[in-house]
Design brief:
Two copies of one chain form a homodimer. Chain A starts with 6 loop residues before the first helix and ends with a strand. In chain A, strand 1 and strand 2 form a beta hairpin. The longest helix of chain A is centred in the middle third of the chain and has 23 residues. Chain A has a six-stranded antiparallel beta sheet with strand order 3-8-4-5-6-7. Among the domains of chain A are: about 70 residues, Orthogonal Bundle (Arc Repressor Mutant, subunit A); about 80 residues, Roll (SH3 type barrels). Chain A has about 220 residues and is α+β, with helices and mostly antiparallel strands. The interface between A and B is medium-sized, with 17 and 17 residues. The complex binds manganese (II) ion (4 copies). One manganese (II) ion binds next to helix 4 of chain B. The site of one manganese (II) ion has 7 residues of chain B, from helix 4. The structure holds a DNA duplex (30 and 30 nucleotides).
Chain lengths: ~220, ~220
DNA sequence: TCTCAAATTTAGTTAAGCCTAAAAAAGGAT
DNA sequence: ATCCTTTTTTAGGCTTAACTAAATTTGAGA
């Protein structure tokens, strides 16, 4: 019954967890989009996940899918693997922060509990990954993390970058090239209402950087 | 055509490589034994491996299987992964030498070229794994390694341990507990012809250790 | 040479996880 | 209420890599 935790199952659960955080639930098409499979494949897998004992997901009539506590536990285990691996690849093996997500996506399903424990020790039981995302603890509690979106700030407000969505390597390279990295402090110096562009002056940088909403919606901050 | 390199295919090629080293070829039942699958499954896979372009193995019905140069290249790539990973787990993550084989068996199929390169660098481009087995170089040359079996030594001969078969964790723990580890020098102090038992006095150890043929056949040495 | 047990292959299934095409169900707009 | 578009499910199939059971081949000993 616990051997049902195939790579595919783990990726579905992780995806449902992420979507539920953002939307409260996960729809068939959203899941299909993220995992790059056909919607019909999602229906098939979701059926399987409701049929396990204990069930790993709950289907709510017209409201998509949410994880059961059991499903969430599995998702958090995989997310812990993923984020520890990202940090390990970055800190110990010298990967840049745009390269770690893809490799961690594969390794997360394969490493043992021992491997997880050892890299956590080597890294000093870290609380956040290279993109600022919180790493669930060993008993799967989630450290605090910022939820305020950069797109909501306006000129003259100051803050610090806390967290950046990690799935687009090109964006990550662009951001780090311009000093937009976790812990960087900044002042908002401009806002254009037509397109939502924000201008930021990062402390210690010469030039301000202009970011569109596609970008500012993927960055989370703390206000000063 | 190169996407045919599934985990299963890689494990078959690695197994055929190992068996060919020892027996010149690999029989269906030998492969089935090592991989713990049914002989019929081996026949099926072997057929698939002869049908690729280029073919990865050469096969005559009922006469066993050998790798083609292409198949050998793939096998050596996986073996490089495996042995680098073993050393990395041991040196960097503090695994003991009996724990590394199982974990490396899973990870070897998943790590990228970049991961391989990085751990090789961190380890200083090592030539041998924790059990003394040679690590193929980046261009898949095999460093020299001892082929003289400990079971062939006789009293008063001196030598040094070079290499130990790595698949039995219990044996590995027993050996390291008694100082039988790569680079250890020793003198043979006894031999019993009935059972082939050898008595070894390891330099720096108080007590001699008696090893049966089941053990001495899995240890390779260099004579002094 | 013949016989027979061991080794190997063939044939037919299974399970996972994906696919496409078509049917059905929602839900917004008229 | 009806239409229409989007979302979701159903139905049927494919591929990979296992399995079991039965058939076949091999090669060693009588
Ligand atoms: Mn994954
Ligand atoms: Mn991340
Ligand atoms: Mn393996
Ligand atoms: Mn080894």
């Amino acid at each position: 019954m616990r051997d049902l935790l195939t790579h595919a199952v783990e990726d579905y659960l992780k995806t449902i967890y992420d979507l539920s955080l953002n939307y409260g639930r996960a729809s068939t098409t959203q899941i299909a989009d993220v995992l790059d499979v056909a919607p019909a494949s999602v229906t098939g897998m979701v059926k399987k996940l409701t049929g396990t004992t204990p069930p790993l997901v709950e289907y709510q009539k017209h409201r998509g899918v949410v994880l059961t506590p059991d499903g969430e536990k599995v998702a958090l285990e995989i997310i812990r693997h993923h984020r520890l691996l990202e940090l390990f690849l970055h800190e110990t093996l010298g990967y840049s922060w745009d390269e770690v997500d893809a490799e961690a996506d594969l390794l997360e399903h394969v490493i043992s509990d021992k491997f997880e424990q050892r890299i956590a020790e080597v890294l000093g039981n870290p609380t956040h990954d290279p993109h600022g995302d919180p790493i669930p603890t060993r008993d799967l509690e989630i450290p605090s993390h910022a939820t305020l979106c950069l797109s909501h700030l306006r000129p003259d407000e100051r803050g610090s970058i806390q967290r950046v969505r990690d799935t687009d390597p090109e964006l990550l390279r662009y951001l780090s090239d311009h000093g937009v990295v976790p812990q960087a402090s900044f002042t908002v110096t401009g806002f254009t209402s037509f397109d939502g562009n924000l201008t930021l002056l990062i402390d210690g940088q010469d030039k301000p950087v202009v970011l569109g909403t596609r970008i500012t919606q993927q960055i989370f901050v703390e206000k000063e």
